[in-house]
Amino acid sequence: MTYLVAPPPPPPPPPPAASAAPVRAQKVITEVDHGRLKTPTAIPNKIVKIQEEDTPTAGGGVVGGVVGGVPGGTIGGVLGGVLGGIVSAAPAAVPKVAAPPQKIRVSSGVAQANKIQGSNPPYPPLARQARIQGTVVLQAVIGKDGTIQNLRVVSGHPMLAQAALEAVRLWRYKPTLLNGEAVDVDTTINVNFTLSGG
Q: Whole domain around residue 176: which residue ranges?
C-alpha cells in the first residue's frame, strides 16, 4: 500500500496594486465645529437606541478574573495576594483629630453679649470742654479666663482713647468655649463717648 500526499495549496494571489484602484475621498460629516455642537440640518425619522450587553461572568466571578479564582477576587490579583502576604502592609491611616484653635475671632456684638463686669469710662474733662465725642475702636484678646489681653487702639480721637483703654482693661467676660474647652478670643471693642444735653 502506498500513501499519496497532497501537495500544499498554492499561495494566495498578491494584493492589487494601490495605484490601480481609484481612490475616492469621502467627506466626513461632523456635528462639532470648533469645539461647539452645530445645529442639526434635519431630524431623522427613526432614532435607534443603542444598548450595550453586559459581559457574563462565570460562577459569580469578576470580569477579567481567573477561572477558579476566589469569588469577589483578591485585591491586586494573584501577584498582589502573594506579595501582600510577604510584604507587610502599611498600617491604615488613623484620622488626625485637629487640635482646637488657640484663638478664635468673634464680632464685637458677640463679645459685648459675653461681658459680665465693667463700666463705661468716665468722660475725659478736656474732651468734654472741647465738645469732642465719638467712638474709640479697640483691638483686644479676651483670654481663656475672661480677662482683657493685648489691648490696643485701632481708631478714635486721641483725647478719648486713653480713657477707653484704662476702662476696658478692667472689663471681664465669660470664657468662650469651643468643643468644651476655653479658648482665647480675638475681637474689637467699641467704646462710645457721647455728650448729652447742651
A: 103-193
On whether residue 50 sits in a domain, the answer given is no
Say how many domains are in the chain. Answer: 1
pLDDT tens digits, 35-68: 777 777 777 787 777 777 665 554 555 555 666 6
Mean pLDDT over 144-156 rounds to 89
pLDDT digits (tens, 9 = 90+) for 92-114: 666 665 555 577 777 777 777 77
Any idea what the CATH number is for the domain that residue 143 is in? 3.30.2420.10
In a domain, 114, yes or no: yes
DSSP the chain: -----PPPPPPPPPPPPTTTSPP---PPP-SEETTEEPPPSS--S--PPP-PPPPP-GGG--TT--TT--TT--TTHHHHHHHHHHSPPPPPPPPPPPPPPSEEE--HHHHHHTEEE--PPPPPHHHHHTT--EEEEEEEEE-TTSBEEEEEEEES-HHHHHHHHHHHTT-EEPPEEETTEEEEEEEEEEEEE-----
- Full-model pTM: 0.46
